[in-house]
């Protein structure tokens, strides 16, 4: 399976982009009400939790922190939550957020790689990342996320 790689240029500092990607205030807007729970220490657990099929505490995605440098890098293993897949450890992949200052802007690179052959979430991830990254860019630049009409 092909690696997914996206590059976005955002009119904001790395600190502003990082806050959108990591803080509860940012992630709730980008990830439909979900927050990240983690100490962000390397090897520690990380999970995106929010409203879903299991109520307000649905674990959508989880894994372990591989690398964490504030305002620069967040890299973690990626598993889909148990409510989406019974054998949730069958398909592991890796997600990397990389931030680089470019003048007064920030280059945000998202890499979702190390896919296992036959991962049923691959195709959905291709579509979902565009929404998440556009939401991130819009949130940093305008203070609001996009309304895709989902859940309406």
In short:
This protein is α+β, with helices and mostly antiparallel strands. Helices cover about 25% and strands about 40% of the residues.
Low-confidence runs: none
Pairing-aware structural class of the strands and helices? alpha+beta
Going across the biggest sheet, name each strand in turn: 1-7-6-5-4-3-2
Number of strands: 7
Descriptors:
single chain; alpha+beta; Alpha-D-Glucose-1,6-Bisphosphate, Chain A, domain 4; seven-stranded antiparallel sheet; 3 helices; 7 strands; about 25% helix; globular; Polyketide cyclase; ASHA1/2-like_C; START-like_dom_sf
What does the secondary structure layout of this molecule look like, with pairings?
Elements: E1 4-10, H1 14-22, H2 24-30, E2 35-38, E3 45-52, E4 55-69, E5 73-80, E6 93-102, E7 105-113, H3 122-142
Antiparallel strand pairs: 1-7, 2-3, 3-4, 4-5, 5-6, 6-7
Helix pairs in contact: 1-2, 1-3
Can you walk through the features of this model?
- Residues 13-131 form the Activator of Hsp90 ATPase homologue 1/2-like C-terminal domain.
- It holds the Pfam family AHSA1.
- Belongs to the AHA1 family.
- It comes from Sporosarcina globispora.
- The chain has helices at residues 14-22, 24-30, 122-142, and strands at 4-10, 35-38, 45-52, 55-69, 73-80, 93-102, 105-113.
- It is an alpha+beta fold and 152 residues long.
- It has one domain: START domain (Alpha-D-Glucose-1,6-Bisphosphate, Chain A, domain 4, 2-Layer Sandwich).
- It has a seven-stranded antiparallel beta sheet with strand order 1-7-6-5-4-3-2.
- α1 (14-22) crosses α2 and α1 (14-22) crosses α3 (122-142).
- The longest helix has 21 residues, at 122-142.
């Amino acid at each position: 399976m092909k690696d997914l790689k996206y590059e976005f240029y955002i009119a904001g500092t790395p600190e502003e982009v990082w806050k959108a990607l990591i803080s509860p205030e940012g992630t709730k807007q980008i990830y439909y009400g979900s927050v990240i729970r983690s100490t962000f220490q390397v090897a520690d657990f990380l999970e995106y939790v929010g409203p879903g099929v299991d109520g307000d505490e649905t674990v959508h995605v989880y894994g372990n922190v591989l690398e964490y440098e504030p305002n620069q890098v967040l890299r973690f293993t990626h598993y889909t939550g148990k409510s989406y897949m019974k054998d949730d450890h069958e398909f592991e992949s890796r997600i990397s957020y990389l931030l680089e200052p470019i003048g007064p802007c920030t280059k945000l690179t998202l890499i979702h790689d190390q896919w296992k052959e036959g991962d049923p979430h691959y195709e959905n991830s291709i579509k979902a990342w565009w929404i998440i990254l556009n939401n991130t860019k819009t949130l940093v630049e305008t203070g609001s996320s996009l309304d895709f009409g989902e859940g309406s």
